[in-house]
Amino acid sequence: MPALPQRYTVTAALPYANGPVHIGHLAGVYLPADIYTRYLRAQQRDVKFICGSDEHGVPITIRAQKEGVTPQQVVDKYHALIGDSFRDFGVSFDIYSRTSSKTHAETASDFFLKLHADGKFIEQVSEQYYDEQADQFLADRYIVGTCPNCGNDNAYGDQCEKCGTSLSPTELINPRSMLSGNHPVLRETKHWYLPLDQYEHWLREWIVEGHKQDWKANVYGQCKSWIDQGLLPRAVTRDLDWGVPVPVPGGEGKVLYVWFDAPIGYISATKELLPDGAWEPYWKDAGTKLVHFIGKDNIVFHCIIFPAMLKAHGEFILPDNVPANEFLNLEGDKISTSRNWAVWLHEYLLDFPGQADVLRYVLCANAPENKDNDFTWKDFQARNNNELVANLGNFVNRAVVLTHKFFDGKVPAAVGFSTEDEDVLRQMGEFPARIGELLENYRFRDALNELMSLSRLGNKYLADQEPWKLIKTDEARTGTVLHVSLQLTAAFVTLLEPFLPEAAARLGRMLNTEKGTWPEAGRPNALPAGHQLAEAALLFTKIEDATVEAQVQKLLDTKKANELAAAVAAPAKEDISFEQFQTMDLRIGTIVAAEKVAKTKKLLKLSVDLGFDEPRTIVSGIAEHFLPEALVGQQVQVLLNLAPREIKGIQSQGMLLMAENADGVLSLMQPSSAVRPGSGVA
Fold first, then answer.
1. pTM of the predicted protein model
2. What contacts 287, CB < 8 A, 6 or more positions away?
3. Which residue of 59, 91, 93, 367 shows the fewest CB atoms closer than 10 Å?
């Protein structure tokens, strides 16, 4: 068995301080990170749990612009709201810092200067979009236009959120500035780049060969795919005025790119927590185990880019594991902050005061560990009523209430153990190791299920022994049964704490005992005979139909409001000349073959007869709307003279034109009657 690490540094992804946090954030990142850290503390390991607000980047400035305030006012508001939400849900950070702090600016600047002095960057002059009216260069997210892949008119300069395709601003059709609405122009600008291609061989050895067995399949697969496609230099600076200023000559008016400065926030937060060099062992000592908890949208940054930065610096350890989760959906639909389709943590506690642990339980039991999963209010109610109330709560309540009823609330003595008693105590003693092994391997859902098996064991034992009947004929045997049951109950004070800390604390008060260390949990004599219990109280309460129906109705009202908003036609785009329109070659084609693109959810590869000798291949992000076989034979409208573009290794030669309803459903643009393939659209 390998030696245990001397210490642990556990980080949770820095949330953007441009809005509140929702259940998807908690389920994907912060809850598993908290469970893991609380478990390590119970094992008496040396661990620091690090997080903070990510307060730089374009989303902050966009929010500030919309609200008519400064970026600092935005981050101050949401840093406080997010921090309060985490505390209310028992997320036990050792520090929750922020990247607008002085310590962070100094740490990020020093990191950049070290790489700059060591010649780790390359300088490149490139053309980037510039808004002449706003008199500034535009970050990718300040540019919107038509996606060349799916035709979405509101694709961003870095990604189309409709089809998921990664983009560069120059790939957008008819780009426009979000600041002025004008068409931006290209101007030259100089930036510093981290040459990721120089680290490709090392990353292949470190990840593809070195972490094949111990990293989660979703993490490993995404990393391998990125490396197999080949890595390119990535800019570490940006033309913005909000962020950490570039600390070298020529860096005036530029800041460190948020993807570069944000992960350094883990280091700067640790420095705030442990000043005067005490932080260094947690980031520089080989005996430290570094674990990053993130969502799947951050895998590339934490597994490829940040490790390359650390490797280039040369003084820091690398992450041992990055147990990223997939996404959590809500009532069958993707969580969306822009559509208000979410359960916000701060709002949940207004509707369910004192029930943070119920949400922690449901989100862990339904965690998206290996694939996207779905949260529904009906499932929330069922898990609370059937598992927390009827299983765990029922066992604890019966054990404590019967002890008060028959033995004045004092733990009765055991007068000889039967075979059944010994078997229950033996099984109880095995649970800490089994649950611990699952937590060590980041299998939090399985660990919680294992813990609930302990209460199922207790309920079966009570049901089999029937102490409420036994008391009439054998008080001594009744005392032994309740003595055994109370030992099981006491085990929960420690074993439940990582998952449901408030419930564990309430149980400890009820049993008049404190949590112990993890190895001590499951001891057969945790509560000695004669130990006085406090009054019994319900650990959990039933959630009624009307309560969850109100939550469902709130979501239905949100969906209706979104539909009404979408029913209003979008504003007309900037006028174009007739000559510009004439440059677009629109034709009618017939789809002769269609198939899904391997390893994608949204892409179809289409062969379209456009009247030429050979059909044209078009890749389109419509796989979630149409079955491939249903498209064969359909006539469609095609933008023929769109510049060819390689998508997932396939050369796409054109773009299908689609109509989109307010609910996001796509429809084919078709002639009213069949026409010859290649016919022009006039």
1. 0.84
2. 5, 6, 7, 281
3. 59
